[in-house]
Task: inverse folding
């Protein structure tokens, strides 16, 4: 099998993975937000499979670092939703254009942010966690950007709790997304080889985020979550409209 990337492509991808992993290690999500639109411009082969595999590496590292703050009960409700959303997303990809699906859910994220800024909070309940997990799984499978829905539920929690819980959910959710892609023939050996280019950047970004996370934990976590979520929804919508 011929490796489909040039040296320049590989170096650019490494840098993008580094930046995205630094953001995710600091806020709780962001690798997909940074990685998807930029990696697609380099080579569409990076998304979604290789990026999902790289994200799995990152979430395992964050889980280890923040394991004492993980909300186990929250994970127990969000993961079933993530499974439902991932399977539904993979199924609908065979029926409905990706752009239409992404436009819908990107708009939903922006709407949720607007409601939050107006002072209405979504309670941290089992039902809401299941619903957020479902939307997250759907978005993660169809666009590789699935962190915002669950992050918005945890936006008022401590930074370590937010990062640890999101990562715990993403570990299981990402595995389900990858398996769903395997079933429909969108993930294999080539995707695993491409991920090797991204993973070194992921690891370096994770180590840097151990320092940047401490800064955000001094009262800046919620603003960072809202900004990153707004960027996430906007990126999904722009990609849908432009068709890349």
Result:
């Amino acid at each position: 099998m011929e490796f489909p990337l040039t040296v320049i492509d590989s170096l650019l991808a490494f840098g993008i993975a580094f930046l995205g992993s630094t953001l995710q290690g600091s806020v709780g999500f962001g690798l997909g937000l940074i990685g998807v639109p930029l990696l697609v411009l380099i080579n569409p082969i990076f998304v979604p499979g290789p990026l999902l595999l790289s994200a799995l590496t990152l979430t395992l590292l964050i889980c280890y670092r923040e394991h004492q703050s993980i909300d186990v009960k929250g994970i127990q409700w969000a993961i079933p939703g993530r499974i439902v959303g991932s399977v539904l997303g993979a199924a609908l990809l065979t029926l409905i254009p990706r752009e239409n699906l992404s436009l819908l859910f990107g708009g939903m994220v922006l709407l949720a942010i607007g409601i939050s800024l107006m002072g209405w909070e979504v309670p941290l309940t089992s039902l809401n966690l299941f619903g957020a997990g479902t939307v997250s799984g759907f978005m993660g499978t169809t666009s590789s950007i699935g962190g915002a829905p669950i992050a918005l539920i945890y936006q008022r929690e401590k930074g370590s709790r937010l990062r640890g819980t999101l990562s715990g959910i993403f570990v299981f959710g990402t595995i389900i997304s990858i398996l769903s892609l395997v079933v429909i023939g969108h993930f294999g050996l080539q995707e695993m080889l491409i991920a090797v280019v991204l993973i070194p950047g992921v690891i370096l970004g994770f180590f840097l985020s151990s320092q940047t996370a401490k800064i955000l934990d001094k009262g800046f976590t919620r603003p960072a979550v809202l900004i990153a979520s707004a960027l996430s929804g906007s990126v999904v919508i722009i990609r849908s409209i432009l068709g890349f």
Summary: The chain has one domain: 7-242. The mean pLDDT is 85.
